[in-house]
Design brief:
single chain; 265 residues; alpha+beta; 8-stranded mixed beta sheet; 3 helices; 19 strands; 22% helix
Length: 265
């Protein structure tokens, strides 16, 4: 029969083996995410051809929570008068989506581990039961602004510097609404299927949003939803699968941009 000392040593060895296995699992998960980001960046050229061929339209532009909107929420862009043409969308980033050559609208912000905003938790692991993506574009006085990477990801963040640009691989916690890259892609990764809004995302970010303010930018806000004029408070805009939202603060107004979502988004 093993002595008490031998039993303690055996227990210690089992604990060390379990810790090594957990560390190896975490490394594999992190490497898989990074590899996925690199793979998406690799297909950026193909995505660019699709965008050029289809004029930047998305076949899923009318999917997602479109049914949640009523006729009174959407109107033709022609009623807005002249819309300026947007400049170059920028080079493809780490998710295969163009990143504006512009400063961020505001620094990335996030709740801390265990905190909840609008019933949206910040948890140590990403939740993928409900996993879809929305694209957000912002112009201030006709000039583009980046949506920063790391919104909804609490520091310290591990940022992978890929050839195509930064990608947030991990952090202290992930909110159910967050960004991995500065390309405007909002990741909705939730353990429950529910209708989220743009206001929820800005609340997670810690930035104000309303008819006369987008983050630190003040002025009348004109919103676009899947290429149409959105009429109402921008906080109430539903986000979901392949929804494309643009917010113009002030003037001139810029014609709504649209992207083709790469494979995997």
């Amino acid at each position: 029969m093993a002595s008490r000392k031998e039993q303690k040593e055996a227990a210690r060895q089992r604990r060390l083996e379990a810790e090594r296995a957990e560390a190896a699992k975490a490394t594999r998960t992190r490497n898989t995410r990074i590899a996925g980001a690199l793979a998406v960046a690799a297909v950026g050229v193909i995505v660019g051809v699709v965008i050029a061929t289809h004029g930047g339209s998305s076949s899923s532009a009318s999917s997602g929570p479109q049914a949640a909107l009523t006729a009174k929420n959407l109107g033709p862009t022609s009623a807005l008068g002249h819309l300026a043409k947007a400049g170059s969308p920028g080079a493809k980033g780490s998710e295969g989506v163009a990143v504006p050559s512009a400063p961020p609208l505001a620094p990335a912000g996030s709740p801390q581990p265990g905190q909840s905003v609008d019933g949206i938790q910040c948890q140590t692991g990403e939740q993928t039961l409900f996993h879809v993506h929305t694209h957000l574009t912002v112009f201030v006085d006709g000039k583009p602004r980046q949506i920063p990477y790391g919104v909804g990801v609490a520091p310290p963040r591990q940022v992978q510097r890929t050839a195509a640009g930064p990608f947030v691989a991990s952090g202290a916690c992930f909110s159910w609404l967050h960004t991995h890259a500065p390309d405007g892609i909002v990741h909705i990764e939730s353990p429950v299927k529910r209708q989220y809004t743009l206001g929820n995302f800005f609340d997670v970010w810690g930035q104000p949003l309303g008819p006369n303010q987008v983050g630190p930018a003040h002025g009348p806000v004109t919103a676009f939803y899947n290429g149409q004029h959105y009429i109402g408070n921008p906080k109430d805009i539903p986000i979901g699968k392949h929804v494309q939202i643009q917010l113009d603060v002030g003037r001139p107004l810029v014609a709504p941009e649209q992207i083709s979502f790469p494979n995997g988004l």
